[in-house]
Structures are given as C-alpha cells and as structure tokens.
Amino acid sequence: MRMYDLIIKKRNGGVLSRDEINFMIQSYTKGAIPDYQMSAMMMAIYFQGMNEEETLNLTMAMANSGEMLDLSAVKGIKVDKHSTGGVGDKTSLALTPMVAACGIPVAKMSGRGLGHTGGTIDKLESFKGFSTGITNEQFIRQVNTIGIAIMGQTAELAPADKKLYALRDVTGTVDNMSLIASSIMSKKLAAGADAIVLDVKTGSGAFMKKLEDSFALAKEMVRIGNGAGRNTRAVVSDMDQPLGFAVGNALEVVEAIDTLKGKGPEDFTNLCLELGAQMLLCGGVASDEQQAKAMLKKVIEDGSALTKLAEFVTAQGGDPAAVYDTSLLPKANFVEEISAPKAGYISKITCDEIGICSLILGGGRETKESEIDLSVGFVLKKKAGDFVKEGECLALMHGNDKDKMEVAKERFLKAYTFSKAPVEKQSLIKGIIS
Ligand code: URA
Q1: 18 belongs to the catalytic site
Q2: Set 78, 168, 230, 398: catalytic member
Q3: For residue 364, what are the domain limits?
Q4: Residue 167: pLDDT band with limits 50, 70, 90
C-alpha cells in the first residue's frame, strides 16, 4: 500500500477501507509517512468528508495507535468530560473539582489550545509548577486518593491523535466533523473512563458553526462512544460569543476560581451545572437533574469544590496558594480599556475573532513550536444583547507587547456589531443527546 495512492483516492472522493485507514494511521504514528503527505490527506478529508464507517474506523485506528489505559484499579464509575473547544471555555477548571467534590471519580485527559480555541492544560499551567505529565500509576493513585486527576496526552496514549492534532492545528484542517469526532473519541476511548460527557459547541466560536452540524457531530460521537461500550452523552451548547467574560489562560483560571466561590458569570455557572448534572447522572450518584444540580450548588456553597481544586493543584505539583490569592497567577504588564465606538445594543460578537485576538496577544500558538504567554487576553465587560453608550468600556485587554495590542484591538473592535433595536439573548443549552 502507498500513501500517495490513498491521498489520490480520497482527493477524488473515494471511500477508504478499514485496512487502508489502519495502514495510514500505523505508518504515520511510527514516522513512516511524513507530515507533508498526512497534511495533504487531512486536506483531502476536509474537502471530501468521510462516511460513518470511515469515521468509526479512523477513531478505532487512532485509539489503538498506542496503549489503552486500564482504569479498573480505580473504584467507582469513572466519568470523563470533553469539550469540542471554544473561546473562554474554562469549563473543566471549575467543573472537574465540583464533580469530584460530589464523589464522582474524575479521570480526565486534556489537551492544549487548538486553532483559535484554548486548552485546559495551557490554562492549568498558570499554576506555578503544575504538570499534567504524570505517569499512569500516579494518575490512578491520585484518582483513588483525592478523586481527581488530569493528565496530558502521553506519547503512549492515542499517539496518532497527538501528531495529527498538532498538524491539523497549523494546516487549516481542524473544522471537519469526522476529524473532530475521531480525534476526541479516540482519546476518550484510550483514556479508559466508563462514561463520557461531551460538550459540543456551536456558533461562531466553535469549530462547528452551524447548529445542525453541531448536532450531527454530537450524535456521531455519542454513537461511537456507546458503540464502544461507554455510557456517552452530549450537551450542545452556545459558542456564538465567548463563554463567561474572561478569554486567555490565567484570566480564565481567575474566572473559574470565582465560579467555585459562587461569584462566577451566570452563563458559565449554568453550563457547569448542566454538564455536572450529566456527569453525576452517568456516575449514578443522583437520580435526576434537579437532585444533581442541588448537589453541585452545595459543593460551591460549602467551599468543598474550591478545596478540591487546591488539593488537585497540589497533587500535580502546582502552587495551591494561587487558588486562594489569584494575584499570584501570571499577570500582564499592560491593561488597556477597549471602548465602544458607538452606542447601541450588541447584536453580534464574532467569537472566533476574539479567540484570534487573544492568539495575537500571545495567548495561543501560531506554529507547533510556539511558546504561549499565559498572562494575556481579554475580560469582556459587555456581552451580546447588552446596551452600551458610546465610549463605554467593552473589554479590558491584557498584554505585554504594545504593537501586538494595537493589532489585536483593531481586530477586536471589528468583531462587534451594534444595533439600534434591542437584541434577544440566545439560549445557552441547545439540546442534550443521550
Ligand atoms: N478537540 C479535540 O480533541 N480534537 C479536535 O479535533 C477538536 C477539538
């Protein structure tokens, strides 16, 4: 078999067989297929798509490209959670300690930023010393002792996805349904949890911009997960504007901590409650949504979710002092106000543009090798549907480089659309698939 022939087949709209997909993934994982050929294949898939069977075969080939983690040594029903990615999506930072504080063992594998979206590992590294590079043994021990552990994708776990994820990030091939579904589900299957709750984003800040595509992605992933014997559910949630107010690694950590103190933004708090309820239901500790949400609210009110975050940060080498004093987190040198160019209701915030502005400030990666600046980003003061007066503050921009801030500010303002007439606020939860 030759990779060249497979590229031509897919480029011309053909259907790849299971053997062909296995050959491609195994050869790429061991370095026998170069990045440039795989980039061409990703672009061919991007344009020609894959059918359900190809997507399933790709997922299984990627999951089997490395070791499959055995979590049977962890007591209880292990629940994992994954977001398809968005802007200001700091959900895992607040949600995982909330769920763990309710007694559900959280054994989670997270990723880094991709395209215009942020990643949980980058955000967690805002805690000095924090590392997700833990061994499988440490991971299992930690879930058994404190009920929560987050690991990065090791070289052993779904290594095909690790290579493909970084390649797609810089070749414009992220936003394809089959590639996203196989990327996420291969990792989730390899990471060994019994149940998986997916947060499928929809709107201008999501990889899937249209509601029907997001539902199709959600259904595809639920089908793959349940087919592989994992109890899988998906929540389709709004990403037509940033989630919460903060966008940028350390700024998002502050917002997640505020949420665990009961002082978080309403939309973000509600999303954590909705996803958390699904996790508690999967884990069998609540019998209905209402009971699950009450349990989650309680661990915020009594401080146990915040304590759980501190325990988790400590266990993974981070400085827990920042959980109680967020001024210890990375801070940008400059904070500049961005003001409204005119009065009106905010009718639209082109959400991926806000993610790109954060990337311009240094908060995301331009190339596979880029180092990111954890301190930069934005804190929005107004969201879609809000009224602003001319000159009123739309957002605070945190940056370390005045030139980059100038470019980001211009682009940020172009992401906002204003209307004279009042604008209806969009619903956060679009649907649940179980
Ligand atoms: N998250 C992933 O893990 N993979 C994708 O392809 C997109 C979002």
Answers
A1: no
A2: 168
A3: 330-419
A4: very high
